[in-house]
Design a protein that fits this description.
The complex is a heterodimer of chains A (289) and B (373). Chain A is mainly α and 289 residues long. Chain A is built from twelve helices and no strands. Chain A has two domains: 49 residues, no CATH class; 214 residues, MetI-like fold (Orthogonal Bundle), CATH 1.10.3720. The longest helix of chain A is centred in the N-terminal third of the chain and has 41 residues. Helix content of chain B is 67%, strand content 3%. The chains are: A mainly alpha (289), B mainly alpha (373). Chains A and B meet through helix 1, helix 2, helix 3, helix 4 and helix 5 of A and helix 1, helix 4, helix 5, helix 6 and helix 9 of B.
Amino acid sequence: MTTSIPTAATAKPPATAPRKSIGRPGLYIVLIVAALFFLLPIYLLFATALKSPDAINLATTWRWPAALNWASFSEAWAKIGGNLGNSLFLAVVATLLAAMMGSLNGYALAKWKFKGANTVFALMLFGMFIPYQAVLIPLFQFIKALGLYGTIWGLILAHVVYGLPITTLIFRNFYADVPDALVEAATIDGAGFWQIYRRVIFPISIPGFVVVIIWEFTQVWNEFLFAATLTNTDAQPVTYALSQLSGGQAVSWNLPMAGAILAALPTLLVYILLGRYFVRGLLAGSVKG
Amino acid sequence: MKGLTKDRLWAIAVLTPSLLLLGIFVYGFIARTVYVSFTDWGNDPAQALALNPIIKWVGFANYQELFTGFLQGRFRQEMVSTIFFTVFFILGCLGLGLGLALALDRNPKGEALWRTIFLFPMSLSFIVTGTIWRWMLQPQGGVNQFPTAVGAPASTFGWLSSTDSIWKFDWNLLPIITAVVVAIVMGVLAYRAFASGQRTRTIVAGASAAVLLLWAIFIAPNLKMLPAPELHGFNLALIGIIIAAVWQMSGYTMALYLAGLRGIPEELREAARVDGANEIDMYRRVVFPLLSPITLSAMIILGHISLKIFDLVYAMAGPDNTFASVPALNMYLTSFRQNQFALGAAIGTILLILVAFIIVPYLSSQFRTEESH
């Protein structure tokens, strides 16, 4: 990725590295300024989380704390630790269910095209773009009627259903790249729908599952509207707890900042460790049917 | 492989549960929301949470209330806010994203690290972003302290607390403004159709532009939506939220543009250079035209995110700051704080219509191009 390109701005562009006109120093200045824009909030996040409440002062906002106050994290944990557990359970269960169903849907749509398959798929995809405000009231009533209001299971149901379009989309596009000849060969060998899925499709699906699981986990973990509408105190995920933690004016700012770090850590770690797959999920979201 | 074999039936059977669920949860619930929006459910607080509420059909009364009712000025401001928010959010993300992608396309050292830095906010929740930026934008701290780094006095701009607004216009002028804007668009379409020699299209577009203009000139000035002028504009309290949203989402446009730039074969750029194009011409004539489909899909994806945005505003400005609010937040508060379900459903329906304007043409065009392959 990093090729050895002469860095002097005045150097004549060699034929192998033709893309230069602003000059290298200019390029790095642009990158550093941009990086500051993205990283300064994170610096402030940690600097504030590590201050003790009486050291937090608007005038010295940007100063790194003289004494590190790790207690912010244990305090924040005491307040939102349970919600982190809820979020973890919610995200894992909802992601696995949505990924499994999405894989089967994608396989059925990509490899067993029936008449109207594209229309069916487009109708499914619409569900991924709707503003959830347009379904929120009936959803609330429905979950309540099922007796699931206030429980984590009601939230799981909502996330699985509204996660289906994107998981189906990613798997359908993933399986579209699998040569039809593989499926046809298996058909000639007498394999049916399920045998082909088990022996041919599923074993090569690992990258697809990685992309879908990372994407869906991040989405469910970060979601707020359903969390605020469908749960009560016991089952609330961490996003809602964090919004409550930072909403009050009386709370000293180190607490919500530490809470924000705790709430961000799982998805941030996934992104840093598996960023390549995260980006693929990101790009898949822009359809390309 | 045609005909209804057993395997094909299995394929349909596998899809059935998902289709049923989405049928209910998307289309059924939308239908139900639209129905609720035509009733008076919750307008009488006593009936809102009753086990068997008495619900009456009231037609478009809730919509009329939202657009012309004395009490719903907040909603009208939010409609204006969400349009401004969407425009600046999209411009910010496209500009910053394209700039970063062009920079990374020049293969700087440590390209992967830079990319990671620009993209990581995408993995955060809007609530986390909102919490951080709320602290960044406190009146006497954070961003307002920046000028002191060069010895200047600290800024006093009330990022989230400002009650100022600019570019104000009277809500009563909305029909005229809308008609004129649509007429201009139609006029441009008519001109382009004329230039390419499509007669029917020229006539249809030109005629609708003329009708709209005539309506705007002769009829619209006599229409009054509100008894008194009501000014709405771009609330300055939104600027900070837009910056935070751009901070979070510009990595996405960067990733899209970078994928697009990497897909442009080097030979094309080389050919342009051989033809004597300088670097700027090469970008203008070769690279940017090839990126324009990406710009279009990015605008659509960002546009629908922007119209739906709710959690970021909630986390940054709180639920009760009417100067920094959007319809998506209002819908939640109206329905689940005030239990005015019918009014909330009407706001939800309006949001859906706005999003559908963007998404339906996009989805149908995606599938049309696919089927022509």
